[in-house]
Write a structure and sequence with these properties.
The protein is α+β, with helices and mostly antiparallel strands. The chain is 35% helix and 22% strand. It contains twelve helices and 13 strands.
């Protein structure tokens, strides 16, 4: 295997310190993904260099010009603290004619907007919940006639469960107005209200560009969920390990899922990936109602690569360990047919 120069783009506050290997697992938690990516790239025989990105693009241009990496390994999730700006960083790499890992800019834009993505999925007759969008400053907050309560209210563009709590699931007009106002006030983004699908939370991970590999459906469940709580991944569940353990949060291969349903979930994930013009790798989030019907909630470009998270664990279930997975992601980035490669 050819030794590559790999420039790893990460947030400046997540660059692992020089003594990271001597820290405890708990101390490494904040930058665990970045540390594991760097460690694994070196184990694969590549020359990895971390580049912390804050509010300037010029360091990227400088490193590309001076170090001339074979590929940029992109683990950024936002830029200028704005979730939708991550697409612009990738666009900058395109303008530099620099190969990179993960999704292309168009796919990031389409998938990153929860309302826009659902419009595209609806056009392709891919099942997704009914929804309504409320922009900051809107005078009327009311569900359209086609929708009924309960609904779940969240940011239309943020990811990582940002702003999602048990209070996000609302059952009346008063609750809707209050939660929409909360999203506007705390996140300064459009709020989207989706028909709440009561049931199971599944994810299907996809790897590829022209040819796709779809991994087995994964599931999130709670063994000790408090009464009157909805089985959803709130911000607290995602980012508070102690609380997640307290309520028995578990992830793994979807439990007792009929073969036909698993195949349908994989088929829907493949169609979603194509409809949103994704590339590299992604995780498609679904909900399955009590009748076994599947609905696409959203597509996550460049999902978390921390060992133990859904994407790498579902890849492992498909027979791809962590190091080969990162190498596959690199190979897909090198092989992606960007516009500047077309003669």
């Amino acid at each position: 295997m050819r030794r590559l120069r790999v420039l790893v783009l990460m947030h400046s506050h997540l660059v692992p310190p020089a003594d990271a290997e001597r820290l405890t697992e708990k101390q490494q938690w904040l930058f665990k993904m970045e540390l594991e990516v760097m460690r694994t790239l070196r184990a694969l025989g590549h020359e990895g260099k971390a580049l912390g990105v804050a509010e300037e693009l010029s360091p990227i241009r400088q490193q590309v010009a001076e170090w001339r990496p074979h590929i940029v390994f992109n683990v950024l999730t936002h830029f200028h603290e704005v979730a939708t700006y991550d697409a612009h960083v990738v666009s900058f790499l395109e303008l530099l004619k620099q190969p990179y890992t993960g999704c292309n800019p168009r796919g990031i834009v389409l998938a990153g907007d929860k309302a826009l993505s659902k419009k595209i999925l609806a056009y392709h007759r891919i099942p997704c919940p009914a929804f309504a969008v409320f922009a900051p400053g809107c005078r009327t907050v009311r569900l359209p006639a086609r929708m009924t309560f309960p609904v779940i209210v969240k940011s239309a563009v943020e990811h990582g469960s940002t702003g999602i709590a048990q209070a996000s699931v609302v059952h009346d007009d008063k609750g809707l107005r209050e939660r929409v106002e909360f999203v506007h006030r705390t996140l300064s983004t459009d709020a989207i209200a989706e028909q709440f699908i009561e049931g199971r939370e599944l994810t299907v991970s996809v790897l590829g560009n022209e040819r796709l590999q779809v991994f087995p459906p994964w599931e999130l469940w709670f063994e000790k969920l408090p009464q009157r709580s909805e089985a959803i991944q709130t911000s607290r569940v995602k980012w508070d390990d102690d609380y997640a353990e307290k309520i028995g949060t578990r992830t793994g291969l979807a439990r007792n899922l009929p073969k036909e349903t698993a195949q349908q979930a994989e088929h829907i994930a493949r169609r979603t990936y194509r409809a949103l013009e994704l590339s590299g790798f992604a995780r498609i989030d679904l909900r399955m109602n009590q009748d076994g019907r599947l609905f696409v909630i959203e597509a996550n470009c460049n999902p978390d690569l921390t060992p133990g998270e859904d994407f790498p664990e579902s890849a492992k279930a498909a027979g791809i360990d962590y190091a080969p997975l990162l190498q596959r992601i690199i190979n897909l980035g090198l092989g992606y047919k960007s516009a500047w490669k077309v003669e």
